[in-house]
Design brief:
Layout (H helix, E strand, L loop, with lengths): L3 E9 L2 H12 L3 E5 L2 E4 L8 E6 L10 E5 L4 H14 L2 E2 L11 E4 L5 E4 L13 E6 L3 H11 L3 E5 L2 E5 L6 E4 L13 E6 L6 H11 L2 E2 L10 E4 L5 E4 L8
Parallel strand pairs: 1-4, 5-8, 9-12, 13-16
Antiparallel strand pairs: 1-13, 2-3, 3-4, 5-9, 6-7, 7-8, 10-11, 11-12, 14-15, 15-16
Protein name: VOC family protein
InterPro entries: Glyas_Bleomycin-R_OHBP_Dase (IPR029068), Glyoxalase_6 (IPR041581)
């Protein structure tokens, strides 16, 4: 009786433009109700969608969450970087060392992502979208293990990672110290209630696990916004609602 991860949601200044960028990088079909809400339909290896909604303000600091893309060869890594740059990405410096093999880029709205070097054993078998990498404590990693019911696949030196039982991207947390948040997060998780549970029942379960309410109910068909133990917002959708 655990929640389902429906999507990783980006708050964007131009949702359609950002969605087209990520569709070009990740592949997949775009759907949605207009320019303010666009969905990148999940692929089989991913299991969750990527949603783009209107609402991003000025970027005040490094995001708490980013995508790690994998490579099968040096040529493949270069091709992913070149393709991303051609679609509107740019190189950025977030303190990575010259000897590190991954390439750090930002999408057209400044959201960081990494193109990981080939041979990375931790992400082996995870698919092209290898991980959703988060800045967060061990406590929050254990919270999300319980929230989603995904097995804990890494738990060392305060770093944690979970992965769906059927495989796909890992969700990782880098451990303490956790960077101070700079305003409301641009990326967040969107959940739907588990089987046999309604929205309020799911909210109550998540609160019992350590989440806190940051906004009240938004009506019959609206999402409930919560915060995980590190203060990162996420939302629980109403039953039968595919996105907020």
């Amino acid at each position: 009786m655990t929640a389902n991860l429906v999507a990783v949601c980006f708050a964007a200044g131009e949702p359609l433009r950002l969605a087209r960028f990520w569709a070009g990088v990740l592949g997949g079909e775009l759907t949605g109700g207009g320019r303010d809400v666009v969905v990148l339909v999940p692929r089989g290896e991913t299991g969750f969608g990527v949603r783009f909604v209107s609402g991003s303000g000025p970027k005040l600091g490094q995001n708490q969450m980013h995508f790690d893309l994998t490579s099968v060869s040096p040529a493949d890594q270069r091709a992913t970087v070149a393709k991303s740059l051609g679609l509107g990405a740019r190189h950025i410096d977030i303190g990575q060392r010259p000897e590190e093999g991954h390439v750090v880029l930002a999408d057209p709205e400044g959201n960081e992502f990494c193109v990981i070097e080939p041979g990375n054993a931790f992400l082996e078998g995870c698919g092209f979208l290898g991980a959703v990498a988060c800045d967060g404590s061990r406590e929050v990693g254990l919270f999300w293990r319980a929230a989603l019911g995904w097995p804990l696949v890494w738990d060392q030196d305060e770093e944690t990672a979970i992965q769906a039982p059927g495989g796909g991207p890992k969700i990782t947390w880098g451990g303490s110290p956790v960077n101070a948040r700079a305003g409301k997060n641009r990326l967040r998780f969107e959940l739907s209630p588990g089987a046999g549970r309604d929205q309020e029942g799911e909210v109550e379960r998540l609160v019992a696990l350590g989440a806190g309410r940051v906004e009240g109910d938004r009506g019959v068909a609206g999402p409930v916004v919560l915060a995980d133990p590190d203060g990162n917002e996420f939302c629980v959708l109403a039953e039968g609602v595919a996105g907020s």
